[in-house]
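Incident log, entry 3
Record: Retrovirus-related Pol polyprotein from transposon TNT 1-94 (388 residues)
Problem: checksum mismatch between cached and fresh output.
Input:
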Amino acid sequence: MKQPQGYIEKGKEGLVCKLKQALYGLHQSGRAWYFELNNVLNEIGLQKLNWCNCTYFLGNSIVLLVYVDDIVIFGQTRKDIDDVLIKLKGKFNLKITGKTKRLLGVEFEETDECMLIHQIPYIDEIYKKYEHLNIPISSLPIAKGIQYSKRQCPQSNDEKIEMREIPYRNVLGCLSFLAGRTRPDISYAVNNFSQFQNDPGLDHWYGLLKLFGYVNKTKHYKLRLNCRYIDIVGFSDADFAANRDDRVSMGGQFICLGNAPITWRTFKEKSVSLSTMEAEFMSMVECIKEITWLDNIMNECASRDVVKYRSKPVLLADNQAAIDFLKSQIENYRTKHIEVRYHYVRDLFYKDLFEVKYVKSKANLADIFTKPLTQNELNNFVENVFVY
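Fresh output:
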């Protein structure tokens, strides 16, 4: 580090300071802290999970989760937890908050049957901050049949100047924070509006405000986490040529551990599909990539006797043609152009590493991540994953 002003000695102007610890704010500071914490955890006997760098085990009695300097500990007994805390106190200045009630902006509520997570205080906070925007009340994230495109972006300088005064990115960022943690029902809408954040138009802004109104109206929704059995089940879906600007299909995935939702995603596929089957197949590939990672985690946990996990993951899709293509080794003029990278999923299937099954479109929980739904369709999803 350069010598700070006022501390430079004559004749030593060309020297620099050797740091005894990382400085706050530098790119390498977080990495330095991670290595320091990892070394300490190893010293006290904790071992890192090979498939997840933020998870540590001590035999089969302790599971420790790390996010920067926030730590959550699970133990079979209170004594097991206290023993680890005592060792950590000898290395760091700890602030112990007790049973987890709030972590990383998410509220935790434990009931006799399940764990509920929500962000009601955060929604109240951002609504109070932006209530001067006259946020409308809405019963849907995006109304069925509504489509947004780049043609709705500002066309004149006056329109662009007007949009500069509108906090589009700020509001979008707040809603994105919700979508990735406790509100899968707004994932598609947030992804849709994110595509215009560099040059949003008034139509995009009014649509975003309606989404905000929907979130505020449904702020009492709490994501239900209960796991009576440990099986990985993934739902995959796609909307063929959904994007009006480039005709790229939208993909969606929703993955549960037992009946507890643990990861979900809305995404634009990487290339234009030539058929609905191709779009669905590409979405299935993205879903199975995530399922494979989760399966590796669960298998390693089982090898450490932390959980009992022996079943194969299941992939559910609502397109029989895509399922048949995944299972088949036959190529023809309608499928031989599909890129090699997408045949990854067929390789895993031939190795018997997962099962693939058909699910009716009405029962496909990934449908909400690919397009706007009707009120009844949205209600069906909400009843499956939320408590309200």
